[in-house]
Write a structure and sequence with these properties.
transferase activity, Glutaredoxin, 4 strands, Glutathione-S-Trfase_C-like, Thioredoxin-like_sf, Glutathione S-transferase Yfyf (Class Pi), Chain A, domain 2, transferase, four-stranded mixed sheet, globular, Glutathione-S-Trfase_C_sf, binds glutathione, 2 domains, alpha+beta
Length: 215
């Protein structure tokens, strides 16, 4: 049994999708992150960084934070969604790190400065829009011609890791149609029941207005 500390946001949604895809028994504990619930002593004892997702695996006694570390853990626990071939496995790790260290933070800053910041900061809007769009171009190149998934023929946790922020970016009205391979992958992801359900578990993203421009 797994306890999943979650909220409807890009990183927890990855774990929602993985738990459903893998059919792992779990209970959900909703953490109201925008009401300060991530900063309580009880939650900080689970994750000193005060953010979701976190899982507690009662079978092993392990508490794990960081969405892509959780995806890796769940894949290794079940022996699914991660290739065993050493070259492909290494590629999976590379892409998981790229997603977590590049795409997630830059998409997050773009969202912050174009949708949430109280003050309009043109330099930050330009900087993070440019960087997020550059990274989207990199993702477009990573999707190989004629292959359905990031690692080729097999669906994996790498696809799940990218979906969290790509889904969020689309909900935030950032363009995806300019990236045909990414758009085709995105539509393919949305044919999977675990993805459709995971993206509204424990709750969907809010409705976003139009992102700000620098002028
Ligand atoms: N690198 C972390 C990022 C986690 C993260 O930023 N979580 C957000 C939701 S997507 C959160 O809990 N935000 C609440 C806050 O910043 O107080 C991961 O991949 O899990």
């Amino acid at each position: 049994m797994i306890t999943f500390y979650a909220y409807g946001a890009p990183n927890p949604h990855k774990v929602s999708i993985a738990l459903l895809e893998l059919g792992l028994k779990h209970e959900i504990n909703v953490v109201e992150i925008w009401k300060g619930a991530g900063q309580t002593p009880e939650f900080l004892a689970l994750n000193p960084n005060g953010k979701v997702p976190v899982i507690v695996d009662h079978d092993t006694g392990l508490t794990i934070s960081e969405s892509n570390a959780i995806l890796l853990y769940l894949a290794e626990k079940t022996g699914k969604l991660l290739p065993t071939d050493p070259k492909l496995r290494q590629r999976a790790l590379e892409l998981l790190f790229f997603q977590a260290s590049g795409v997630g933070p830059m998409f997050g800053q773009r969202a912050w400065f174009t949708l949430f910041a109280q003050e309009k900061v043109p330099y930050a809007i330009i900087r993070y829009r440019y960087e997020a769009e550059r990274l989207t171009g990199v993702i477009e190149k990573l999707l190989q011609d004629g292959k359905p998934w990031f690692l080729g023929d097999d669906y994996s946790i790498v696809d799940i890791a990218f979906m969290g922020w790509i889904w969020t970016a689309v909900q935030m009205h950032f363009p995806i149609d300019d990236y045909p391979k990414l758009k085709a992958w995105f539509d393919r992801m949305l044919t999977r029941d675990s993805v459709k359900q995971g993206l509204v578990t424990p709750n969907p993203l809010p409705t976003f207005g139009a992102p700000a421009t620098a002028d």
